[in-house]
Amino acid sequence: MNKKIISCCLILLAAPLIIAMGVWMFQDRRYNLIILALVLVSMIPFFLSFEKRQRPTRRLMLIAVLTALSVASRFLFAEIPFFKPVTSIVIITGIYLGPEAGFLCGSFSALLSNFYFGQGPWTPFQMFVWGLVGFLSGLPSLLKNKDGRRMMEHPAALVLWGGFSGVIYSLVMDVWTTVSADSTFSWARYFSAITLSLPYTIVYGLSNIVFLLLLAKPLGKKLRRVMVKYGI
How many structural domains comprise the chain? Predict the structure, then answer.
């Protein structure tokens, strides 16, 4: 079976299934087990993406640096509610290092930063949605333009995806809002949560757009230089 198909199955099927089982079987009381399972799911697609000719250690170090930058940015903007650079850095990671690296950066950004902001049954949802955004960000970049540039590097693509990724984040986290009351899902409560969170969703999207326009070009330039220099 193709490695990309295995990665997609793990991320798009196994990860949400693990979260769902944790919610309905453990009723959020054993969220630490769910987090551990998601950590393993995050790592498997990344290591499956290695080829013999690649330098996995250097690539892993680069992802670690970007994840640390993502975590630090959440700390830095802690006083500004819902306006954070985390998603934009996760998106940039996916664009330049691939979908598996994007998922790894996103999930670990949520896990590590929540040691400061607080771990809880919401952490698996944050790990999944930030990882999902990173993974989806990397898929279009597997196809490059004639000049070798990635499709997602275009400013218009960044604006559209930045805004839409804010919607994705809000929709997934509204699932947590819905089930957090009694560990059951209700469509009526879910649509109510979506409506009430609409102002925050708009802020999420705008913050992603702002930080992508500020960071994508300079950070992407440095990433390309490092990747060429070290053969990543």
Answer: 1
Which residue, among 126, 26, 6, 7, has the nearest Cα to 70 in the 3D structure? 126
Tokens of 49: 């993406």
Residues 90/109, Cβ–Cβ less than 8 Å:
yes
Compute CA 52 distance to the chain's CA centroid, rounded to the nearest angstrom.
26
In the block, tokens 């604006």 appear at: 159
The CATH number of the domain holding residue 115 is: 1.10.1760.20
* Per-residue pLDDT tens over the stretch 107-123: 999 999 999 888 888 89
Q: Is the dihedral of CA 81, 112, 42, 224 positive or negative?
A: positive
pTM, whole model, 2 decimals? 0.89
Give the residue from 131, 117, 225 showing the smallest Cα distance to 172.
131
Instruction: Please give the structure tokens belonging to residue 102.
Output: 């994007």
- The residue with tokens 């290092």 is 97
